[in-house]
Design brief:
13% strand, four-stranded parallel beta sheet, 4 strands, 158 residues, Rossmann fold, 5 helices, alpha/beta, binds 4-nitrophenyl phosphate
């Protein structure tokens, strides 16, 4: 089982949508049986909440539902996942600050994991619905690339 955790700040806008998009991506590629997928936030303001209504709406418009409940990222997630995928550089710093000693779990940027790792998925929380549509489009192509990257890195295990 390849365990992938998507992380943003609040775990109500970007990372639950990334989780949902990635679940669709692995379904479309007939790889669901290989994966465990989850999401978490570096901040704890929204623990227990469903995703933002705008993330749920953009998901439904694209044929899937988001039922994740927000939870906080913890140091233990480094032990429980094979890949941690963050939306922006601040998420990466916040996640890295919790890395246990000697842990080597890769922390990938959602947009681009080996060439240009400076691209971010912008926080849509204070924006409008079109910002969520933009996030969905970024996540859609990023998830295709992420799946390809993970499968090529796991050729011996899958
Ligand atoms: P997310 O968006 O990190 O994509 O879930 C945010 C959600 C809530 C807040 C900030 C960003 N907030 O400040 O409450």
């Amino acid at each position: 089982m390849i365990r992938v955790l998507f992380v943003c700040l609040g775990n109500i806008c970007r990372s639950p949508l990334a989780e949902g998009v990635f679940i669709q991506t692995i379904k479309n590629n007939k790889k669901s049986h290989l994966f465990h997928v989850d999401s978490a936030g570096t901040a704890s303001y929204h623990i227990g909440k469903l995703p933002d209504i705008r993330s749920r709406q953009v998901a439904e418009e694209n044929g899937f539902k988001l039922t994740h409940r927000a939870r906080a990222f913890t140091a233990n997630d480094f032990n429980n996942f094979d890949y941690i995928v963050v939306m922006d550089k601040q998420n990466r710093m916040d996640v890295e600050s919790k890395r246990p000693k000697n842990n080597t779990t890769p922390v990938l940027m959602m947009r681009g994991n080996n060439t240009n790792n400076t691209l971010e998925v912008p926080d849509p929380y204070y924006g409008n619905y079109s910002d969520f549509v933009n996030v969905y489009q970024l996540l859609s192509s990023a998830c295709d690339e992420l799946l390809e990257y993970i499968l090529s890195s796991n050729q011996n295990n899958v």
